[in-house]
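Please, structure for the following, as tokens.
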Amino acid sequence: MEVHLLDYLALRAGCTYLSDLHRPGPGQRARLCRALAELAPDCAPQREWDDAVAYLTGGPPAPGPEAAKAALLDWLDQPHTN
């Protein structure tokens, strides 16, 4: 991936700013879920997956890209107040 994973996710979700990923609206959440579902775990280095997990969920690094992707999808399944 030529762009950082977080930047790619923000772009795909339609976020104006990277920080918009913290509290995605319903449409952004749906686009973000689709974008994550379409990504192969090996599309980005482990460090970028760890960055995404830490930035979005506040959680610790995942043991691998597959687990990081799952953690992000789980985070998106949780209710967020906008």
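The CA atoms of residues 32 and 38 lie 10 Å apart. The mean pLDDT is 92.
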